[in-house]
Amino acid sequence: MKYGDEYRHYKGGHYRFLGIAFPVKSGELSAETQSYLTRTGTARYHENTHDINLFMIDGAYFIDSDVPHVIYQSEKDYQSDHMWAREVDDFFGYILSPEGNFVRRFAKVD
Known about the structure:
48% strand, single chain, mainly beta
C-alpha cells in the first residue's frame, strides 16, 4: 500500500489511498511536539457522522484518536481536498457480502 493506490469498495465505488494517520492525543504531546504539528484539514469519519482533524509532520498524517486510520478519497473527490477516515482494521477487514461470502471491504485494484 502506498500513496495513490486505488481500492474498490465491496459495493463498487473506487477510492484512492492517501496514507495512514497515526493516533495522537493532543493533550499527551509536549508543547514542542505540538508546535511541529500542522493542521492539514479534516477527514469525514466513514459513517458520515463527524469530521476528524488531521495534522501533519514531515509528510506523515496524525489524527486525534486512539487508533490508526486510513485516509482516503472517493473517486468523485479526486480533484478536491475532501477526505475520508476509517479505522485501519475496518478498512482492510472482511465483511459478509449479501451473497454470504466473506470479502474484503476494500480490495486493491491492480
